[in-house]
Amino acid sequence: MKLGIIGAGHAGVKAAETAAAHGAEVHLYSAEKVLPYYRPKLVGYAFAQSSLEDITMHDLAWYASRKIDLRLDTPVTACDSAARTLTSGRGTESYDAIIFSIGSGPAIPPFAHSARKHIHPLWHIEHAEDIRGTLAPGRKLVVIGGGILGVEVAHRGALAGLDVVLVERLEHLMLSNLCTDASEVVENLLRSMGVKILLGTTVSSIARQNAGDFQLIMESGDVMTADAVVLAVGARRDVTLPKSSGLVCGKGIRVDMKMQASAPSVFACGDIAEWDHVDIFCALEAVLQGKVAAVNALSAAQGTALSAHQPSDSPIFYSHAGFAVNSIGPACANGIHTVILEHSVEIFRGLLVKDGVLVGIQMAGSAADFRKYEKQLGQKLS
User: Fold this and answer.
1) What is 2-104+237-302's CATH superfamily?
2) Quick one: pLDDT band at residue 332, thresholds 50, 70, 90?
3) Residue 131 is inside which H or E element, if any?
4) CA angle 44, 268, 302 (to 5 degrees)
5) In the chain, what is the straight-line distance between the N-terminal and C-terminal CA atoms, in Å?
6) Mean local confidence (pLDDT), 258-272
7) Element housing 21 (H / E)
8) Cross-sheet strand order for the sheet of 357-364
9) Does an H or E element contain 128, and which?
10) What percentage of the chain reaches a pLDDT higher than 70?
């Protein structure tokens, strides 16, 4: 059986590994020139706190030993989902099944639509290389967006000796993952490192100065300058290729719980997959979906039964140099109350409970006992 996989992120590599282990001939297409890497580790690489080898998933020998044909710098330019063909710089090839694992891209706010050097998201290796080669201790970095990516960029930037400003439109950081008390601890920890945090506002425009830096005008009318700007305001999907191939798409490729798209023997996994209008942008979830998509792609080609995917929670695990933010489950919701384990200026540890059942965990400043409680999720607390 011959399987074509488009995209070599977390989902694509796991799908390739799984399919190859079942004896399939696997062609793994990557638009990037470098070996597949762990995207969540890209921030550490950007600030020279890890090497390219540190963030690389596997070396070339790993792919070769599993007979995975890894095609770097080979974007797929066309797909015919009915005929199951893929077209790239290598020509057009036919497959028994196709998996889309093209991931997501960064959301770009209106003020940053025109591409400018040193104003970009931190999404691909090229972005990390630009930051790594541009920013030195004492230079000023503005981070726009106070989710986990923005928080990590600010933290890593402060550790690198940069003058960091973190801008968040909402009233607190990470409100989609944390309650207010936990968020305030994150803010306290960042401020103790010298990070300036601007809440309840955002940037309305950016212009380059004659000296080479940037002038940022806030919605409030305030003005500040920066040597570089990192955008961390969310993700979006690009469905141009799957739509042109004939697949049904919404925000992403519409799939069922078996990760099957609207065409026979075509599957999707990772950020690009969408079902019941659920958005899950999570490396762990991408890996799990990749495995299911590969198994089902083989089953579909062989005419055997497919298995359903069981979505995971979308955890946040970030711990580096004494700074920790960990959460799983909802930030808050009706009927949920918080059992506080520890709360101070620098630490918040709490359990989210609904009808006596543990439904979430939030910790900032300390991850003590997080794994213990994680094993109890969905269970009644004693």
Assistant:
1) FAD/NAD(P)-binding domain (3.50.50.60)
2) confident
3) helix 125-134
4) 130
5) 51
6) 97
7) helix 10-21
8) 316-320, 323-328, 357-364, 348-354, 337-343
9) helix 125-134
10) 98
